[in-house]
């Protein structure tokens, strides 16, 4: 008794994006030659959009991608957020410069681009006590 597994409590879109903004990094999921690829990246949530600086930006641009992060906070042992939407390159030089000062790529590689993910679907869950 008392060893009940945790439950998943669904989170609102606003709470999901708030938690996502606090995560130190996440994972972008995209396709390469029709096969799934997953790369850890640093990100920022701004105006409800997920902004990523990564060397995979060119592979993602114009495609439907997923972005996922998880973590823990004071309220529960853990949470998981997934955002699905279209990724678009940011081409405005002022915007690029702005995000270059805010987001350091997780991996130092060439061809780093800035992409914006337009969230069509935001799914968030928090683990809660099973008791």
What can you see in these coordinates?
There is one protein chain. Strand 2 (26-32) and strand 3 form a beta hairpin. This protein has three helices and eight strands. It is globular. The chain has one domain (12-128): Pnp Oxidase, Chain A. Strands 1, 2, 3, 4, 5, 6, 7 and 8 form an eight-stranded antiparallel β-sheet that branches. It has helices at residues 13-22, 57-60, 93-102; strands at residues 7-10, 26-32, 35-41, 43-46, 49-54, 64-73, 76-89, 113-128. The mean pLDDT is 89. The relative contact order is 0.29. With 131 residues, the chain is α+β, with helices and mostly antiparallel strands. It starts with 6 loop residues before the first strand and ends with a strand.
SSE layout:
Elements: E1 7-10, H1 13-22, E2 26-32, E3 35-41, E4 43-46, E5 49-54, H2 57-60, E6 64-73, E7 76-89, H3 93-102, E8 113-128
Antiparallel strand pairs: 1-8, 2-3, 2-6, 4-5, 5-8, 6-7, 7-8
Cα distance spanning the termini: 9 Å
CATH architecture name: Roll
* CATH class designation: Mainly Beta
Number-wise, the strands total 8
CATH superfamily: Electron Transport, Fmn-binding Protein, Chain A
Largest sheet: 8 strands, antiparallel
- Using the CA coordinates, give the radius of gyration: 16 Å
Measured as a percent range, the helix fraction is: 10-25%
Structural class: alpha+beta
Low-confidence stretches: none
Mean pLDDT: 89
Q: Based on CA inertia axes, which overall geometry fits?
A: globular
Helix/strand order, N-terminal first: EHEEEEHEEHE
- Count of runs of 4 or more consecutive helical residues: 3
Annotated CATH topology:
Pnp Oxidase, Chain A
EC number: 1.-.-.-
Keywords: Oxidoreductase
Enzyme class: oxidoreductase
Protein name: Pyridoxamine 5'-phosphate oxidase family protein
């Amino acid at each position: 008794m008392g060893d009940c597994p945790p439950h998943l409590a669904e989170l609102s879109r606003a709470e999901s994006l708030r938690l996502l903004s606090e995560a130190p990094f996440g994972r972008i999921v995209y396709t390469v030659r029709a096969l799934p690829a997953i790369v850890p990246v640093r990100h920022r949530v701004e105006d409800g959009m997920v902004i990523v600086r990564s060397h995979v930006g060119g592979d993602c641009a114009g495609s439907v991608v997923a972005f996922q992060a998880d973590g823990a906070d004071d309220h529960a042992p853990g949470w998981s957020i997934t955002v699905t939407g279209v990724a678009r390159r940011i081409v405005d030089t002022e915007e690029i410069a702005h995000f270059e000062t805010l987001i350091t790529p997780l991996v130092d590689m060439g061809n780093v681009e800035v992409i914006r993910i337009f969230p069509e679907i935001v799914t968030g869950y928090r683990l809660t006590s099973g008791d």
